[in-house]
Amino acid sequence: MKINLLSKKVTWMVVIVIALLPLPSIANYMQRFVVRNGIVTAFRYEVHAPIDGVVENLSVRPGSVPGVKPVLLLGNRRMTGQHEALEQELTSLEQSLKQSIEIRVEYLDRISRDLDQSLGILRARLIGEKAAQEESEHRRDRTLKLVKSSVATKEDADRVESEYRKDEAKVKTTQLEIIQLKERRQMLDKGMIPQDLSDGVLQVQSRINILQQSILACKRRMSETETGIIDNSVPSKDSKQNINNRSARASVMIPDTSVIWEVDVQNGMEVSKGDRILSYIDRSRLMVEVSVDDAVLELLKPGHPVKIRLFGKTNFIEGKVSRIMGSAGIWHSSLLAASIKQRAVRDGRVLVQIEDKELYNDVEKFCGVGRTAYAEFEGIGLLEQYFGVFLR
Predict the structure, then answer these.
(1) 33-45+282-391 has which fold?
(2) What is the pTM (predicted TM-score) of this model?
């Protein structure tokens, strides 16, 4: 009988141990929120033609890495007289700038003279106020002696003391005004304009800044139009005519960490300014887009740790949440190179930033862009999903 009871106890203990063995893995699994609809993606940038022209020396194809060399060149015959028009515009801007600078100099000279005159007036006033203060001090001392000898009353002493304090306050006020004017004078000497001195000089300075920016922009446009080579088949003695016969050229370069995604042009194709010529992705900022329910978005925030595993691979990639958007958010399809095709009505989007050297160097597969991925959000288990409101 005892042997039967003992064998039953052993049997039950074995059954209980076998039943408890999966609990650690189940408990660990309950601490993670798993999503299997992730897509590897990256920001997609479009490049538009900077000038009207013809495509030359196109040296890239989709999936290639251009490095530090230009991906293509654009050549364009400029319109006759374009350089003269820019020269006239530049001359007009420089004349306006010169006039504005002269007006500013006149303003500053006038302000400097006013400050010097004010300083002179204050210094002269300070001499008189100090003399009045000394006289009040002597009067106060005499009155105090008379009060001690019972010749003067306490009221006389208070009146004399009040006059002395007034004269002392006047001296200190004048000294502070002199210090303030000296500081403004020093600012003018250093080329700085105090805000409260003159609205006119501030307006002139603002106009000077605008003219300087316009001159730089005009020179930049002139530099763009002057770029190129002189057509040797049409020699000219006039240098300006040679400039107008040049072919304006523009080279297109993209970051060395990018991969060409699409190419919309070919060698010899004519394009207009603003036309899209190609697009590229930045492989240094690879991400995984994940679709989750809006209720789960409440549990996420930027910087939340995520483990990513590409389907077909065994190792995990560490990542962090970089952007969160609800189901009604507007997410333009042209923003990313790859995106989740089908989502439920209440599914929001989460972007997870990842860093993986293997994907970075896997250019032949476009850095894995478009591949499906498996995502595990740390610290969000079943308890948080279903009872998170009560736990919080």
Answers:
(1) Elongation Factor Tu (Ef-tu); domain 3 (2.40.30)
(2) 0.48
